[in-house]
Design a protein that fits this description.
Elements (H helix, E strand, L loop, with lengths): L4 H21 L6 H25 L5 H8 L3 H7 L3 H23 L5 H30 L5 H23 L9 H19 L8 H12 L4
Helix pairs in contact: 2-3, 2-5, 2-6, 5-6, 5-7, 6-7, 6-8, 6-9, 7-8, 8-9
């Protein structure tokens, strides 16, 4: 039995209003804008973290980093599980540069000079941001996930390749390990960075201490 005409008109009105609302709202979202927003949020968090760590060191407030990035703490923790992972993200670009330099130096004529040049670059790297680089490389990275572990291993591999080449050429003692060598340089970075913040800081001291380390690497 056919429905009365007025009932059909009454039922069609909500559908018409819904269709008009859909057209006015535009196409439905597909999730892509949300992913783009997530990428931008991550970039803002890393940028804010870079500034905060440079000013306050590795213990900079994560809430302050979130505030500078214009996001809530929950958003920060959705991108980074904690401080070590955020530190690793901040340093990843520097690690990329450092490892690329090591790769270039593997073809240098003098294996000993190549190792020395890279260790000086690593010292500069480790002293950046109040010892941030060194503290992360040899302390906190071991407790992080894939990102941090990857950075840590890449630094060890770069040092190991240069050290092995120097040892094979007779330019470095055989009983040295990459981890021991990096630990010595990180010790210089951490101890001298804090002193540089005071008026009594000696800007030449890091280089002199590294010279002593380099002298100790020579074959006996």
């Amino acid at each position: 039995m056919n429905q009365p005409q007025h009932q059909l008109q009454h039922q069609s009105q909500p559908r018409a209003r819904a269709s008009a609302a859909t057209l006015a709202a535009g196409p439905a979202t597909t999730g892509r804008p949300a992913r783009a927003d997530a990428v931008r949020n991550r970039e803002r968090i890393v940028s804010a973290a870079r500034e905060a760590f440079a000013e306050a060191g590795p213990e900079a407030s994560l809430n302050e980093i979130a505030r500078r990035a214009g996001v809530g703490p929950g958003t920060l923790y959705r991108h980074f599980s904690g401080r070590p992972e955020l530190l690793a993200a901040v340093l990843k670009e520097r690690v990329d540069t450092l490892c690329a330099r090591a790769q270039d130096l593997l073809s240098a004529d003098s294996a000993g000079a190549a190792l020395e040049e890279w260790l000086r670059a690593f010292l500069d790297h480790a002293r950046v941001n109040q010892g941030l680089g060194g503290a992360l490389m040899l302390e906190e990275l071991e407790a992080t996930g894939a990102l941090g572990s990857d950075c840590h291993q890449r630094i060890l591999d770069a040092a190991g390749a240069l050290l092995t080449r120097a040892q094979d050429s007779g330019a470095a003692r055989r009983d040295l390990s990459p981890a021991d060598l990096l630990q010595l340089v990180v010790g210089i970075a951490l101890s001298t960075t804090h002193k540089q913040a005071s008026a009594a800081g000696d800007p030449e001291q890091p280089g002199r201490l590294l010279d002593l380390v380099l002298d100790a690497t020579q074959p006996r």
